User: What shape does this take?
Amino acid sequence: MSNEIEIGRGKRATKAYSLDDVAIVPNRRTRDPKDVSVSWQIDAFAFETPILGAPMDSVTSPATAIALGKLGGLGVLNLEGLWTRYENPEPVLAEIAGLRSEASTRNDSKITAKLQELYAAPIQPELIGTRLAEIRESGVVVAGSLTPQRTKEYSQAVIDAGVDIFVIRGTTVSAEHVSQNTEPLNLKQFIYELDVPVIVGGAAGYTPAMHLMRTGAAGVLVGFGGGASSTTRRTLGIHAPMATAIADVAAARRDYIEETGGRYVHVIADGGLGNSGDIVKAIAMGADAVMLGTALARAEEAPGAGYHWGMEAVHEVSPRGDRAQIGTVGSLEHVLYGPSHETNGTSNLVGALRRSMATTGYSTLKEFQRVDVVLSPYESDRF
Amino acid sequence: MSNEIEIGRGKRATKAYSLDDVAIVPNRRTRDPKDVSVSWQIDAFAFETPILGAPMDSVTSPATAIALGKLGGLGVLNLEGLWTRYENPEPVLAEIAGLRSEASTRNDSKITAKLQELYAAPIQPELIGTRLAEIRESGVVVAGSLTPQRTKEYSQAVIDAGVDIFVIRGTTVSAEHVSQNTEPLNLKQFIYELDVPVIVGGAAGYTPAMHLMRTGAAGVLVGFGGGASSTTRRTLGIHAPMATAIADVAAARRDYIEETGGRYVHVIADGGLGNSGDIVKAIAMGADAVMLGTALARAEEAPGAGYHWGMEAVHEVSPRGDRAQIGTVGSLEHVLYGPSHETNGTSNLVGALRRSMATTGYSTLKEFQRVDVVLSPYESDRF
Amino acid sequence: MSNEIEIGRGKRATKAYSLDDVAIVPNRRTRDPKDVSVSWQIDAFAFETPILGAPMDSVTSPATAIALGKLGGLGVLNLEGLWTRYENPEPVLAEIAGLRSEASTRNDSKITAKLQELYAAPIQPELIGTRLAEIRESGVVVAGSLTPQRTKEYSQAVIDAGVDIFVIRGTTVSAEHVSQNTEPLNLKQFIYELDVPVIVGGAAGYTPAMHLMRTGAAGVLVGFGGGASSTTRRTLGIHAPMATAIADVAAARRDYIEETGGRYVHVIADGGLGNSGDIVKAIAMGADAVMLGTALARAEEAPGAGYHWGMEAVHEVSPRGDRAQIGTVGSLEHVLYGPSHETNGTSNLVGALRRSMATTGYSTLKEFQRVDVVLSPYESDRF
Amino acid sequence: MSNEIEIGRGKRATKAYSLDDVAIVPNRRTRDPKDVSVSWQIDAFAFETPILGAPMDSVTSPATAIALGKLGGLGVLNLEGLWTRYENPEPVLAEIAGLRSEASTRNDSKITAKLQELYAAPIQPELIGTRLAEIRESGVVVAGSLTPQRTKEYSQAVIDAGVDIFVIRGTTVSAEHVSQNTEPLNLKQFIYELDVPVIVGGAAGYTPAMHLMRTGAAGVLVGFGGGASSTTRRTLGIHAPMATAIADVAAARRDYIEETGGRYVHVIADGGLGNSGDIVKAIAMGADAVMLGTALARAEEAPGAGYHWGMEAVHEVSPRGDRAQIGTVGSLEHVLYGPSHETNGTSNLVGALRRSMATTGYSTLKEFQRVDVVLSPYESDRF
Assistant: This one.
């Protein structure tokens, strides 16, 4: 019953599970995929599909934020990335895509050094306004993200530019950051004073998520940032297996509803959701929506042009990720809605979610969070 | 005792096991392989060997259904495949076998697109009659399969043509399919009105299997379709490890016998039984018979000509499988009865089953379902 | 506490462990390797080292049986192998070593067919006498093996030729073999009437081992035959993880001592002991001695000339093993006693056993059976 | 709760975990990395960073001991290695680095034989003085190591030369070594009579560590020597998974404090800490400091010149390790303090430790030993 394991005398660990460890199983009833709804609503904003584009330069540009919005999702622009550091980031993106790996694509220190150099260009606050305005003009919901470290410095620029949803995203974001050098961001006060809903994270457990919920956030990102391109476990020893993390944060959501007499904070799985099966399982674990990196970076429109990297990969002194080559699958619409000619879960993401829900007999995402799950480590094909 | 595991706070999963996770162990008595019977009977039909050929175009043609019947098994013809879409499917089969993979054989979207195109040809109901008649003329037991989605449309053609055993097979088949658009098949009524025994599935758990048994089916297929060529877990997040699935459905059989005062519904393992060891273990888990894809597709007579694919691989919008290259081992007789020169369980399938039963001291399939089992993950050879 | 796991409703399995799953750990005291004894005695025969050469044609010839005997161990000649089928087996051995694999060395059906053909030559009973006489002349302990199937036919020839230790070895040997066609060997009576000590097996569990002990055997082989070259799990679905098997049979030995008021039956681990670490762990699990195949087939003197295969690989209709290429390490003396220049446990087998016992503070094999053990799956090196 | 597992009837094992099996997880509070202290003090010696250079010839020379000391750590010179066997070991090191592997770099018996030959040169006691004097002149803390087997013979030379910290290090060191041939080292008396603090090990469990603590040692090394280059498990069957070993020894430290009314013995993880994540997890398991081999051998200044081997690899009769090719990452300062351009945890080791502590909200190493841990086997990237 308890998940506490004794590692050695007096040192206990909690057994945690990845999405690869679990799978969903059909139960009695089946349903027509056409009768399934995958719509999602946060605050006043309704979306046809519960997919957010991660604020990563390989995934979300103003153009892909607009495209994703028109296709029913929500693109979140990284306001500390290339789009606010360069007037014209296109040549920089081309340069990154053009970097040739000398050894393997993993841990190429020359590529990492080049990324670090390109991201050392200063943020130009006026570009924050320019980029958000471009998205707003298209008519889609506008969302931009800052890290907690820079929220105080740049949030006014964001507010002035106008966003519908404000995202505060870091590898690990806590409601109580301690520093002797700088006065840290008071999340609770910041959110209270802000007029727009805030999504904040990553959090990877019950307690930190509960604390973030108590700041007044509309949504909490579950995860530690990164997925395909992350090396946090190897470099920092930190790892938060997603199946357990999502279930724990969903439990915090349930308890917070009771604590507040009804306030519903959305749980958004963020990181390591590389194919449609992962998305299905994230919802099954209790997520309301998913924030995708790799999966959307495979779109033809993605700025990464077949490559993918996160902000942790460009950290000035402690890079914890790589520029990963992920290839291109088809248009963003093809990736989301198919029809698919790929059999590895890289296209028709929404169709697959719909089909899984139908096969197990559920008609809404909220109900689908209760689907039966088996624990069964991923087997490599042996044929 | 309980197999319930806590994935995260409040989210539980059932620990499930694959056939690779288990093995059988000899107990006290041994027996002469010649004294072992592997015969199987369903309804009025007796078979020397408990092997069914899967209704997949790479496995079962009218010719191989006849050959398998003469060798003591039962070939099930897919009545929605190439044989009912093309007057002469031979060139189509040749074209599929001739498709060259540009990258690896897995997830080649061009091959998938070509398969989708070839299977977009309409079903010609009159060919259902032609194909079944061809099998009937040979004198073997005649069996054909439809998906639940098309059973209403084509079942009359099948009945008119005449079958001995009617198979309704889909990735997941439930006794209660819900749709707002089309009136779904009422399995119970359909089976009640039909004159021939029906085998239906796949089902992958106790409850859905019990509901299928209550429809009056003579047999239930255990599994989710596909095996070697399936990517359902990656695309849909759905997975039903076979050892657990078979044992659960066998438990439903036992309870259903009690519930009905003696009605015995046959449990047929379907999917992922690639070699003789898998067949042995499927029976050990409680199966009465096995439906084989890959294992029979390796026969020289198999229409796939060294390739194997399932209906899920040709789905028009959500393909969940690949055309897998599996090679050819020898004649169908060699595959079933040897003598074997292969040491990987790809030939003499029936001989291996017989030998395993003898080594553990059992003389009938029914008794062999009680053999001792160990849980021990498959180790890769390290020499 | 219990090792019973529920695979599915009502189907239980026993969790079983391989030698790779376990390791020994040093406890408080350490000891000088020179003070350690690895001597072993069975019946009236004392050996400096607890190592038996497996009755496999790639391992034991009359010459290597003599060499192993002179080095303190016991070579067991297979009396149904090439040495009793051919007047001069040397060219046959050379032919086997010279077979070129067309694809990989595993599951090459042409090589298997050739082996089957070479082993189809009839056994010449007079050669049994010739071979055993050759060993006897050298002055070492003489041991030969038959399978249970052929013990009735050839045992008189063996007895006439004279052996010190009689070995009855098959994949699975039970005390109660049932056959409707031939009258099976009555092991108990056979052993009772025989004048020499009998070692019999393989047995892989408590109950079958206890029954073999009750036949009056002096030693029981633990295992299912084969190791590096075996494919029994894939072909027959049978597998008996060695750590659990040895511990279970050792428990039978302990209970049998009590049952008989003191009769000690030796437990000999047989199969899958490829390097010195495996030998150490087999003793730690409770074995009194080890029967080695691969490990000795790596000696320069070994008849296999760098290749290794078992009798199950040459079975006329159900081959369950391969001719495996294992290479050559050095002289038999080097393999047993070093000094070693190999770091993978393929040489100085006895020195390694001695060192492990010293590091954990034990001075005799019998005491070492109580050493502390950890359960920790083998990790592949990640550097 | 208990970690006791039944391997077979009556044979129990303790489940043990490697560092790869665990990871740390952020909890509520986060902290500024600048506010984190990684300082460590043993006896009268304070260090900025809790990193010891292993006494291995590929890692620590007099020059790198000085360099590591100036960078805030402690280099321990192996006083039985090349630096005390050769007046000028540089050509020997160059020869080792120049050995070309004929097959793979693992288990090349020719390389092992060459290493054995080079290490067969006798130890020249006067060189012990020369080497330690060279380190002392630089002003850093001086530490040298002997094996228990040679401590009696050479300790006087070490004492005469003068060391600040005396290290006694072997694969397994026990407080009670038994020998019938030579009078073993009486550790307790030796340490009592010695004027300088002693660090002793490896020990891999609660009991042996407790006994070593009772000898009066200032610190205990946890582990079995070796890591990347070790083959102890394969050769001797001995393995002590590090996460469990460290936690067990930390528990002995806690109990020993109580037993003595306050004596604190430092726990130093030694072996298998190849990247920064491993260092983080070793502290999290309860270590006060870490002794690094591979991780420091990757420095440009390292004497191994891109290769790494331990004393167990050069053992005259039982080599249990290889010369492993590990490559070079950058200067020692870069390896320790970055800034990093590597994303695999091979540089900025101290920065990573600092960042992990900050992310989980801890400000001292001692507090960080209480960080939350999850059990989650290392997943290979599947993208």
About this structure: The two ends of chain B are 36 Å apart (CA to CA). The first strand of chain B starts at residue 4 and ends at 8. DSSP finds 15 helices and 18 strands in chain B. Chain B touches chain C through 64 residues (CB under 8 Å).
